[in-house]
Records
---
Amino acid sequence: MSAKKKQAELIEEISGVNPLKCMKCGKCSASCPSYNEMDIKPHQFVSYVINEDVESLVNSASLWKCLSCFACVERCPRDVKPGKLIDAARQMVVRQKEQTYLSPDEIPELLDPELPQQLLVSAFRRYRR
């Protein structure tokens, strides 16, 4: 089993989502408040997982631009939940870093002044453990 396939399967396992159900209607991307900020849109994110191109996802700005508001999850007619796939990819990246987490002193210098507040709250809620 290739490393790419293993990573794609890990994302599917963490998220509990079957990306093959996607019919590429684009409703998830149309409802995304961060659409203009993302280089890989939510509907494209699903395609990247299907095509096992996890490396591109991990290196994209979209992974961290997602607000985790789950508007895409609510709009999906096939229950694909792109937001959960994005969140799973984030978790995979954090898990690969093991114990090299940021210290609280490092955070202020990394913050972008245009970063949405909701993203920060969502990240703290998700990664506080």
Note: Residues 45 and 119 are 18 Å apart (CA to CA).
---
Amino acid sequence: MRKREHLSQIKLSDSQREKLKDEIKAFYLDARGEEIGMIEQIQLLELFEEKMAPIIYNRALEDAKRWFGQIMDNAESDFYGLYKNEG
């Protein structure tokens, strides 16, 4: 059996990082009317990756687990619906 890799940190692609830095820059401009520099964009993105991403990721896993559980409950009741009366 293959050993599962542990996800110690969420890794973003370069294009994802660029898009998020643009979003941070746009947010500061829209919400605060301030320009934010490249260093600040990177620092905020790294903060989000380190502190917020694991929380959001874990929540998504819990949501997927709950959804899968509901699907399996439905499958089980559908399975028993296939039984025929033996009488």
Note: The mean pLDDT is 88.
---
Amino acid sequence: MKLFILIALGAFALIFFLVLLGRRRDRAREAAIDNFTFPDGIAQRVRRRYPHLTDEDMTLIFAGLRQYFQMARLARRRMLSMPSQVVDAAWHEFILFTRNYQVFCDRALGRYLHHTPAEAMRGPQDAQEGIRRAWRLACGLENISPRTPPRLPLIFALDDKLRIPDGLRYSLNCLAAAALAQTASSDGSITYCASHIGCGSGGGDGGCSSDSGCSCGDGGGCGGD
């Protein structure tokens, strides 16, 4: 009986130690993302593609990129779609700084985060699950209710806020955004229903229908892992 108690106490102590170690590791990785200085060349390359962006805009884009990496940290190797074209562009340019990116991934994620093009995902269901997971995690990072959001999380709002041609745009009220969707289609951008991702208020004006003026796809480009 005493031996059983000793074994149980030892197992409890080991589990407690592993949990504590895991939390310390997560805090260290979270800080590594928040405190990392991105290479200067990323901004220059992103602005070649989108010349209208200002220094202030690039600050927001890097904040969105940090948010995506925090989401990837929390997703723990599960598929995570990219909700922003301009953040995706910054991520792609970051990967080209191969040594910096490898060091960052090791410190911030404990693994190399692969950039997976949307067309290379295993199927439509993977992309849908990935964007829904991205929405939940982004909302959680900003303390936004994913089901009744008063606003969009940063990474979901950036393409529209920064007027990104071919951007991914999201609306909390898709019927009210019908005119925007018609206008945006001329530059290759698409407006998606945030409620259709499964996180809006749902029903009524918040729903997504074929005549709402919004795309009824879930929205999301490249993904990680």
Note: The chain is about 55% helix and 5% strand.
---
Amino acid sequence: MPAYDPIADWYAAQSRTGSLRRFHDNLAQRLLGMAGDVSGKKVLDAGCGEGHVARLFARHGARVVAVDISPRLLEHARQLEARDSHGIEFVEADLARGLPSHTGAFDLATANMMLDDCQDLAGVLRGIAGALKPNGRLLLSMNNPYALVTRGKVHDYFASGPLTQTFGTEQAEYEVPFYYRTFEEWVAAFRQAGFLIRSLVDVPSDPGDPHLPDDPVPKIMLIELVGRAA
């Protein structure tokens, strides 16, 4: 069973009206700003979840194909698309196995807070790279590995491997996979998939959002990657 299926109902609700909404709105808007004008461009939203980023890009004129491995999260995304259509195609797929139906099809890809959850990071990055046109861009948000150390989530910066990420509410706590990597390992994985870093943005703290705490090191970073030329 995909890891997010058991918490999909809670996660979708929190993303739309609950504690995660401000966090996701913030990151989605920042990814859109990094993308620039997306009108008419074909965009892959990798690990789309309940469709937050996909809907924002589609509202700004992008032709979006949104992919996730969780059928339950996709069900939430499709239900909202049926009520308020933006022309988004939602696809259930494991990107680590590629997306052969869309090889070389996309101008741009987004990955909002999903690559940290991927055990097979190399496979997922290859899958995204294979779906992009030459010189296509991947815009991603991710946990800052240095901040994970300063916040006490990791006690040895060089001890990469699986951790447990816990979502908590007053009623319940849910655990999902999380894979910690050093920034050196991230950069090596990007390079091996054919990507180069074009820009990096540190996301500042937000006093109104508990998911963006006021820490000495920014919790989240945005990275713009550029794929291989033809």
Note: The CA atoms of residues 194 and 227 lie 6 Å apart.
